[in-house]
Amino acid sequence: MEYHYSDLCIPTDHLLTGPYTAEYAPQYMVPNQAAEYEVRASVLVDGGDRFGVSAVVFDKYEELIWMGNQGGHVTSYYGPAMQKYTSFQVHESEEVRDIITVEGGIFALTKTALRHQIRRGIPKRTYKSPNMTDMQCLFHVNSSKLLMGGHQNKLIDLDITKMVENVIPIQEEGCAVLRSGGGSLVACGSANGMVALRDLRTPCSAEHTFRAHSACLSDLDMQGDLLITCGFTQSVGMAVAEPYVLVWDVRRVRNGLMDAAWSLTTASPPLLLHFLPAFSGRAVALSGDGHVALLHVNAPNAADHSVFQVDTHSSVCSVMDVSSTSQALVFGDQAGHLNLFSPQHNHEPVFNNFSRATEFADPVVGLPYVGFSDTTFQYSTVPLPPLSTGSKWFNQLPEEFFKKVYRKPKPIDPEVLKSMKMQGPIGYSPNPRTFKRNQIPYVQDNLEDLQAAKQSENKSTAQPIPKHYQKIELHYNKHGPNEEIEKCNKTGLPGLEATVPNSYCNSMLQVLYYTLPVKATLLAHTCAKEFCLSCELGFLFRMLDTSGGAPCQANNFLRAFRTVPEAAALGLILPDRGADSRVDLIALIQSWNRFILHQIHYEILETRKKEKALLVNSPPKTVRIPNVPKMKMMAPINGQYQEEYQYTELEFLGPATEFECQEELREDGWTGREDGAGDADTVPVDNHELPNNQQADREESEISQLFAISRHQLNRCMKCNKEEGRESVVLACALQYPGAAREAGAARGFLELLRASLAPRRSTPAWCDSCARFTPTLQRGRIVRLPPILAINCGGATIREKSYWVKGTQKETPEPKRGGGGKPCRYGLHCARPGCHFKHPERPTAQAGSSKNPGQESQCVLPQQLLIRLQSDGDVVINEKAETPPEPLTPNRGADKNKKKPVTTQSEEEYTLSAAVICVEDNPKNLVAYIQTAARDVEPVWYLFNDLSIVPVSVEEVVQFGAWWKTPCVVLYTAATTPQPQPPS
Predict the structure, then answer these.
(1) Are the C-beta atoms of 208 and 195 separated by less than 8 Å?
(2) How many helices (H) and strands (E) does the chain have?
(3) Which of 43, 68, 640, 878 has the fewest CB atoms within 10 Å, counting from its CB?
(4) At the top level of CATH, which class does the domain 5-343 belong to?
């Protein structure tokens, strides 16, 4: 850094002429072989032939060196090779006095202005002030504040974010140097030899002031509590350079005097000083003739200082800086040269330990060079310039020729299909020899076919997905306005935030919240269990009640949900990070629905047992409910049978496919013992019949009373006709879709799907104790009790099941003729063999169990109201409720042959659609819920719940599932006899 003492009327001729000329002669220097640093690069800066270097600094963020000259020009150099990076003018005439680097660019100080530029050379702002008359130095206080000083009786505290200055008057004669040792003190050195120590927190008043040199101060620097200075002393009426460096301990300043100070002698009078940041107690002293000495500050008597010489080109060495790693030193002189020095064995020094990458301009791609006699050069590799007229070159093909289009395969020869024999999923057929061996296996498209396909693509446009169905990334701001959320939810109903991957269950949480009997049960539940999902759901529902329509978070429930080992075993917990976008949300939410109902049921029973045990001070006993069938489910654990409700993985699997067991054969979960029955009398009921048709009692909770579907499962061996029966209970019914392996006469409407799922009938291989082998077994389910709330898992996990909701009725092979002449079938009505050639009795017509409007069935419309009749033989008849009363039932010819009386209706329930959870096939997929809400004395209204977005929808939009992007997952029907508490206002 250069200080302009001529402006203060201080003679400077002694620096170059006079009695000190011999001391600055190059031949006075003795070469030192032990020098630590040596020159690495030397460049003539921009404008160096006219102006000298006046400021130089290492960049603190990138591998750059910044230089300013006396003509107001700034140039930067990259790396140890000093490659020129940027060069620009900051002032038309004034020299650059000082430069500092910040994260967003640099600040260059001239005599009367401060310029801010980015590193690429683009100016951002120029700051000028009447208080800036003869500026000299800069100091970077923090990211938003600069301190400027000069040959004037004031300091300027500048806020660089607001560009607002604060003037600090000083008593000293100017401030030529501003340096800090890393603490709160900053040393301000004036040209008259005075040094003032100021606190950055209160810079208006100096903490300590003392005189360092009698005539003039040349330079100073601080490291910790050590301060080094160099300057001039007054001798015989003139200023004489002092051939030593003074070291001060700022901790021992008393009454303006230093108690502890010592000097370090140098071979040549120092002009500039700088501490080495990477070393403690090491400093660099530079004299005007280019003599550099590495000093040990804490060793005053050390004579082994490392010295070396900088080539000044017969001029004065005026500026110096040290990199933050101390691996590089840079020196500038009045001849316009920059010299970079580094340690002897370090040829690739770095300026910062963690420098960021420097932004360079994109390289200009030039034309390849080719020899005149080169005959192998491909001229097509040379890009053609764009035409100015907007036309294209002749060799530029249209875009449709660059699209990847798969060729259409030829259809399979009908002769192959005619003679093909199936072995499982693989078909075998002899080669008809109708094609040659090397014939093209695909259809060749000509130009006309391509144009026709292009026109058809333009005509066929997919139905867009409405915005309120798509995944919305919104976050609730607790400390500010939420205008975006208010636009998405103007209903006043509370939404749920989706901040974690397990928030996929928000739609089902809203369904449970607006299912008023479930909500009342959970709000009344309390227990002492640490992670109880029922308690967390009750707390969440209470928070939704008191939120006043503000969005809520289900984080506490999800935190407890992650601790349940059964949920993790069933794959219901998604990872926090890197969640797989290919997760099947359709199967996931249905498994979650089945799991949460079983979990709440078990937790309520467990709490009830503990409360009774505390009341009677004895082990809990089974609560008996008369006239309710009970299923023995004693899972063996370590050789013993346990009474408590136990989960198994099979209970929560998704809907069964056509080759798997039905869901009612998998779902258990009811516990209990008969009175007086010991461990030896308890056996799994899956393989044994209840003795003497006794019905055991069953423990029930509020959840099982609302959702439980009681069934009687009858298994009959088709070889020996042995029958076994068992009782089963499920909390959610899974739809069973028709397939090629099922009976061909099954109707495919939603009502028939539901009827076949409630009372399933199928044939599957099973173990028979009488036959002692696996035999074809006819399995038939009969409904014992209908629930007040009918929860239906709609499946849709396979392509065939999804296509049902998109396309409606599937086209399958024609139904084979049955009931023709010939020998009657031995299985009669219960025959499940496809294509059976024997005679069968007439089956019940589809009119009794299907909707009266077949057009709606083909359009995949959910019925709003259902009328389910439970017959005395366990079969169910489902009709869509109409305004006119239903016709009386005719006797069912398919009843048991042993019964002579006609089938009568045992019970009848009217169900109304109350909620539905659907999956939006978008990218990413999304789960939303249709919920019917009703306030006091107000008609029910349907709302679409999409996390924080809640919008009202019409009934037609709720029941229509013909769109390709809309797949139902869970549907809830509520019986008319179910008590409905009033919802919160």
Answers:
(1) no
(2) 14, 48
(3) 640
(4) mainly beta
DSSP 8-state assignment for residue 400: G
> What Rg do the C-alpha atoms of the chain give, in angstroms?
46
For the residues of 235-290, what is the DSSP string, one character each?
A: ETTEEEE-SEEEEEEGGGEETTEESSEEEEE-SS-EEEEEE-TTSSSEEEEEETTS
User: Which residues partner with 294 through β-bridges?
Assistant: 284, 306
Asked if 570 and 649 touch (Cβ cutoff 8 Å), the reply is: yes
What ranges do the domains of the chain cover?
5-343
Alpha helix segments (H runs only) across 524-677 = 533-546, 555-562, 565-569, 585-616
What is the pTM assigned to this prediction? Answer: 0.47
| Separation of alpha carbons 136 and 155, rounded Å | 11
d(CA 333, CA 291) in angstroms, rounded, equals 12
Is there a contact between 496 and 949 (Cβ–Cβ < 8 Å)? no
Coil/strand/helix, residue 704: helix
Q: Measured between alpha carbons, how far is residue 815 from residues 747, 752, 840 in Å?
A: 11, 17, 14
Cβ-proximal residues to 646 (8 Å cutoff; 6+ apart), any chain = 635, 637
Q: Fill in the DSSP letter of residue 348.
A: S
Asked if 350 and 325 touch (Cβ cutoff 8 Å), the reply is yes
**Among candidates 95, 107, 169, 165, which has minimal Cα distance to 134?**
95
Strand segments, DSSP code E, in 736-822 are: 761-768, 773-785, 789-793
| Predicted confidence band of residue 256 (pLDDT cuts 50, 70, 90) | low
Q: Please determine, for residue 146, whether its predicted confidence score (pLDDT) is greater than 90.
A: yes
pLDDT at 217: 92
> How far is residue 8 CA from its own chain's centroid?
64
Q: How far apart are CA 96 and CA 68, in angstroms?
A: 5
How far, in Å, CA of 659 to CA of 263, rounded?
Answer: 96
Longest dimension (CA), the chain: 143
The Cα–Cα gap between 448 and 612 comes to 82
Residues in the chain: 985
H or E segment to which residue 169 belongs: strand 164-169
- Cis ω on the peptide bond leading into residue 203 (within 30° of 0)? no
Does residue 767 contact residue 776 with C-beta atoms inside 8 Å?
Answer: no
pLDDT in tens, 773-798: 888 888 888 888 889 999 999 988 77
Contact 38, 47 (CB under 8 A): no
Provide the terminal-to-terminal Cα distance of the chain, rounded to the nearest Å: 76
The residue that leads in pLDDT, 168 or 435, is: 168
Q: Cβ neighbours of residue 575 under 8 Å, at least 6 residues apart? A: 501
Q: Hey, which residues does 861 pair with through a beta bridge? A: 960
8 A C-beta contact, residue 635 and residue 689: no
Secondary structure (DSSP) of 821-859 = SSSBPTTGGG---TT--SB-PPPPPTTTTS-S-HHHHHT
Q: What percent of the chain has pLDDT over 70?
A: 75
Alpha carbons 460 and 408: distance in angstroms, whole number: 19
Task: Look up residue 147 and give its two tokens.
Answer: 């301190």
Do the Cβ atoms of 66 and 85 come closer than 8 Å?
A: no
Distance between CA atoms of residues 150 and 820, nearest Å: 115
966-975/905-920 β-pairing: antiparallel
**Rounded to the nearest 5°, which phi and psi values hold at 158?**
-110, 125
Nearest to 587 by CA among 967, 972, 962, 973: 967
Residue 122 CA to residue 113 CA, distance in Å, equals: 17
- Report the 10 Å Cβ neighbour count for 406: 6
List, for residues 287-332, the tens digit of each pLDDT value.
988 999 999 998 877 666 789 999 888 888 889 999 999 999 999 9
Query: How, if at all, do strands 723-730 and 709-717 pair?
Result: antiparallel
Could you identify the residue written with the tokens 């490659």? Answer: 83
Q: How far apart, in whole angstroms, are the C-alpha atoms of residue 874 and residue 905?
A: 10
Q: What letter represents residue 464's amino acid?
A: P
